[in-house]
């Protein structure tokens, strides 16, 4: 086994070699790294063999007895205009009608999507606000991006008050913030970053409660598990891996690597027994946590561009995907077929979330707008 | 992440560095020959150690360790073998890092700056980037592609400006910059640690018990949820986004006089569904009170508040829980098995966020296996279900294109403020 502490910072291999003639310290670095990579690959192959042994049926086979879905009609019911640049992220409030959105120009806006009124607006001190989230109480929002931080803004009742005055800096990463989410309360925030880590923070003190190491490149997305004992979440990264973490210990408890490119979005199935992912490889995939494997791929030859974000309908029967070719594809999760495609935005769809009661879903796009859609059978 | 001292440590090291550069009592600096160039204001590793021994009255071993820290955190950098961030107790030359590049001044290191640095290296000499730098360069090119023109422009500008400088100055600046990035973007960090961790994850995965696909997938989809999915089955009286009528939301707010039938049905899908609904929890509490086991739910709720609450309140909340639920003769004493109780009582001597996890889980499963199924069979639940509302479906308007008035609603922040105000009034009155 390996001396983990030594490897943690690669410092061991930064010591000078015995002979000063050695041109570079990269030699011992590369050799050991190659050896470790081989060991990892061997174990991975063995793991795949073990997983395959118990895979006795495909999801769509089991789904043969389930009634098929009819035709769907998708309509835009609200268009939210107000951002001056690419919309990068959005999140719903628990009240099922308010949303928060963030964009490239540094603006974070809170809307009542039902009336389309803007209720609050904040200008961040950085551009590319890639992450935003609504607090469970509905009384605050969190956001961050190229500033490498996640900040919390309590939502003031006084429309004239400058929200930035009460801003609280919570998370600090060494690279951009890619996603953030409050946990079950307003008191803790989970973040993912381009620095390859995820982290759990105490909002009140800004203290780092736990950090999660294991991704080999930028982490792009995360989602908290709706489990009864709580305490796990999944993350996806540029290393093509989706990792499931124990929030308490910081350990990676499950890992899946079947995508062929960056994973931009991960979302739990409503029961918490599985999760979906969307990737630059133009596919969405479903992973079952008890079977410990990928159980479905949602793809079509005609779909070439990457998926930026995914979410399930309330029952989990439908999977929505926002794509970089400006479309939204809707998938029958059980049968694996695409049930609907929508051409609505005039540029890349960057973010997509179903509302808390499943009555609608919202998309944000590089065309500067957000849209609220309904789907009817 | 990159090596960084905490702010206090940083300040102490900086104080040390300033003392080392004191014109009277500081280190004797000299010119150092580096190949054919002469670098000013350099010092040898040996000199550093001697100075530290005298200044702090320590032995050689400690001085070596102390000096090593100054190199590790980037306050002093080696001129020969820049990648070797150690203090050699010999004639090896070192220089002080300019405060501009102190880690404490420039934290966190910006992605943009790193991209400019790598671009400069790349432009200056083809093939000068190391493997790990090439990987990062192409990753950066992808991630901040939108500002790439700016990156290249900045890199070219900086290279042009540096060409104007004297060679010695140029070399010094290049060394300073390189030292800064070796500290803040150490090679192999992510690569090593992630591969090592991955091996651990694979090993653990090989040891885990897996469930056959046929078993997992069989129970995958439950028909019952489909009826609750507004997209699949519509919603009553109407979908607010379609009809512009918010009645559906009004009927389903957190606390209503009479809940809807679908909502009460959902409480029977799983124990988690019941507990996740404030009304469901309230009803369940009523039932437990009849059964004289309400302390279980109170205990569970108190544990949740500790798990998800502020770090600063953990100690006092754990105390409260002990007093109310765990202490002998407590008002709401919970019946936990002796093994868990002993472990918990021992654990709360050092309270932390998860100290009550075992006890909480024990009580959770007790309620789930015992009280919950009986609640679903009880008159309390059956009556709730019977009197629950089934809203009439809104008949489609005669003029489907006429838009209804879309009413705004109080924001959650307003609701909280109002509730607090009312509470205050009650307290005042009482």
Features:
heterodimer, A: mainly beta, four-stranded antiparallel sheet, 3 helices, B: 430 residues, mainly alpha, 59% helix, elongated, WD40/YVTN_repeat-like_dom_sf (chain A), Guanine nucleotide binding protein (G protein), beta 5a (chain A), WD repeat (chain A), WD40_rpt (chain A), WD40_repeat_CS (chain A)
Describe the 3D structure.
The complex is a heterodimer of chains A (377) and B (430). Chain A is mainly beta and 377 residues long. Helix content of chain A is 10%, strand content 43%. Chain A has three helices and 28 strands. Chain A has helices at 4-8, 26-53, 59-62, and strands spanning 73-80, 87-92, 98-103, 107-112, 117-123, 131-134, 140-144, 149-154, 168-172, 177-182, 188-193, 198-202, 208-212, 219-224, 232-237, 242-246, 252-256, 263-268, 274-279, 284-288, 293-298, 307-312, 318-323, 327-332, 338-343, 349-354, 361-365, 370-376. Chain A has a four-stranded antiparallel β-sheet, with no helix packed on it. In chain A, a hairpin with a 5-residue loop joins strand 2 and strand 3 (98-103). Mean pLDDT of chain A is 88; it is low at 1-28. Chain B has 430 residues and is mainly alpha-helical. Chain B is 59% helix and 5% strand. Chain B has 22 helices and four strands. Chain B has helices spanning 7-20, 45-56, 60-72, 111-124, 131-143, 148-163, 167-184, 189-207, 213-218, 223-226, 230-233, 240-243, 247-251, 261-266, 271-276, 278-290, 294-308, 314-326, 338-347, 357-377, 379-387, 412-429; strands at 30-34, 37-44, 76-78, 93-96. In chain B, helix 16 (278-290) runs antiparallel to helix 17 and helix 17 (294-308) runs antiparallel to helix 18 (314-326). Chain B is elongated, with a radius of gyration of 34 Å. Chain B starts with 6 loop residues before the first helix and ends with a helix. The model of chain B has no long low-confidence stretch (mean pLDDT 86). At the A-B interface, helix 1, helix 2, strand 17 and strand 28 of A face helix 5, helix 8, helix 9, helix 11 and helix 12 of B.
